[in-house]
Design brief:
By secondary structure, the chain is an alpha+beta fold. It contains three helices and four strands. The protein has a single domain, classed as Lrp/AsnC effector binding domain/regulation of amino acid metabolism (RAM) domain (Alpha-Beta Plaits, 2-Layer Sandwich), CATH 3.30.70. It has a four-stranded antiparallel beta sheet, with helices on one face. It starts with a strand and ends with a helix. The model has no long low-confidence stretch (mean pLDDT 92).
Length: 91
């Protein structure tokens, strides 16, 4: 499974509609609106890189109002919460 984090710039008056349209796409797990350098962040997952390569330019980038995307492929997930949960087993 390949996870990608997609940073998305959207026209200001289209953020809510674009976020919902992106969230409805197969392969998109979560969409977050945020403050900072980008308007939306989408967390995506797919069986392989080819599916991500099709999803981002073929679907996310074509959503009405999307101006630009930057995609980051995730290698590993680290979470302090997972570590804490592991050590609390049997407590």
């Amino acid at each position: 499974m390949v996870t990608a984090i997609v940073l998305i710039d959207v026209e200001a008056d289209r953020i809510q509609e674009a976020a919902q349209a992106i969230a409805d796409l197969p392969g998109v797990d979560q969409v977050w609106s945020c403050a900072g350098d980008v308007d939306l962040i989408a967390i995506t997952s797919a069986a392989g890189h080819e599916e991500i390569a099709a999803l981002v330019p073929g679907h996310i980038s074509k959503v009405d109002g999307v101006i630009r995307t930057v995609t980051h492929i995730a290698f590993r997930s680290y979470s302090g919460r997972d570590t804490d949960d592991a050590f609390s087993i049997g407590s």
